[in-house]
Amino acid sequence: MEDRYNPSAIESKWQRIWEDQRIFYVSEDGNKPKYYLLEMFPYPSGRIHMGHVRNYTIGDVVARYKTMRGFNVIHPMGWDAFGMPAENAAIKAESHPATWTYNNIDQMKEQLKQMGFSYDWSRELATCDVSYYRWEQLMFLKMYEQGLAYREKSYVNWCSTCQTVLANEQVEGGLCWRCSHGVEQKEMAQWFLKITDYADELLEYCERLPGWPERVLTMQRNWIGKSHGAMIHFPLENSDEPIEVYTTRQDTVFGATFMSLAVEHPLTLELCKGRPEEAAVKEFIEKTKRTQRSERTSELLEKEGVFTGAYCRNPMTDERMPIYVANFVLMEYGTGAVMAVPTHDQRDFEFAKAYDLPLKVVINPPGSELDGDTMEAAYEEDGILVNSGEFSGLESAAARAAINQYLESNGLGKGAINYRLRDWLISRQRYWGAPIPIIYCDECGIVPVPDEDLPVVLPLDASLTPAGGTPLPTLKEFVETTCPTCKGDARREVDTMDTFVESSWYFMRYTCPDYQEGPLDRDRNDYWMPVDQYIGGIEHAVLHLLYSRFFTKVLRDMGMVGQDEPFTNLLTQGMVCK
Ligand code: ANZ
Ligand code: ZN
User: Fold this and answer.
1) What is the distance in A from the centroid of ligand 2 to the CA of 572?
2) Is 289 exposed, middle or buried (0-12, 13-18, 19+ CB in 10 A)?
3) What average pLDDT score do residues 73-88 get?
């Protein structure tokens, strides 16, 4: 025996023996309990870094331990291989994203092998392979059929540096998650997946994931953001259509003295039209739209607005309420209209002080009395109702229930539940991604690519330009096609899918990477899934982990898999800092 540990001799010897004996290659075995150990797969950036080594070493230790304890352990590895860095690097190196990506995969695989990790390499997959994304296109079409994928024009997050739209989950503090550039709001038609259909289940199951860090579950709950409140109709002067607001504080409705609309609200321009206020409203809308989202949601934002010239009425008191457009009201939340209660909401308080609007106290703290003339800040807690007609004397919680009933029986609104979660925006104006299998025809409109015409292959003869942006719209052979329905001339969708779509189901494909009949072989999937232990970075607490949970539930409802949740235990390993 050597007296010194000689890594290059000893490790390569054993690694060769493991490989020859295929000891990490597993198949379904009814005699042993299964154990699925998974680490988040890497983006093939070029080289394994210390963060990977840490994550993958933890996983390797657990996988080997479980094997020694008699479990049938699956421990796969693959590549999250679509995405923008490949495009940027290819432009720099004057090569192609595919060349760059596959070279990196070769290098990184070599490095992982040198580390001696216990992977079953027969299950390796790269999401940029058409043999992978073709199944994703099929899932997209199934979702489209069921109304779970849809195209809609709306205000979306636009990063001008990355020249693409972003999902809400990819905007961090108003900045692009990838390049930290400020995100603007732009009105565009985009593709969405209906994750909101699953909001309740995603929230409920947070209680059934005891193997997840509480911190991650809290972030998911907050992101879903379920709140209980009311929709209230405020009659609009000179109109039959009332303004609808969402509030969680219907107990304060008697104190609503004005109304605030988001600049994007469809009524803003209509209300001021032809009035002396019109020019000022338009100018304010333009200015506010240019303000970055991060600023508009900040507590430090100076509350600004303009009067539209129009009025509505408080449905409880029949008092006139001036309608303002305000910079802190967001179109994506509730209805984009807020009943302003300056005595009990701090933002409304600051706004009312700035524009000299009336304050009316309707909630008193238990045992004391507020005075609207001398208050220095809003009283935002629950309390006892005053100046609220028949509801005066009730405690806030009881008043909320009673007011909901009153609203409903008088046709003025009703109790309502609201979510912060929005549908997942999945189209990207980027080249290096999976094509969305849709055709546009002037006669037939949006036509899904028939299953038998799949895959829609990403053309590899595109050349990227330093100016950025996707070359797909300029590739005639790709864009020009015939309509599957009327056989007339038609165009292909040129947007590709968010790479988070690929990572939402790769862990299932590992269970049957060679399956050709569909995305997943249900028998093998159900033998191995769910992942018993998942290991990865906390930066995915909302993004990847929420999307994967959503996909699992969608595939379950399509009968493709038998699980409710993908990951039983989650370990978020710490960050390695330099
Ligand atoms: C009146 C009110 C009175 C409110 C009061 C609060 C206190 P959460 O609890 O986070 O769900 N709101 C509604 N839509 C909004 C929008 N699009 N942009 C900005 N703010 C909006 O928030 C619900 C509360 O946020 C709602 O309740 C509304 O203000 C405001 F004393 O309505 B409240
Ligand atoms: Zn960006």
Assistant:
1) 25
2) middle
3) 93
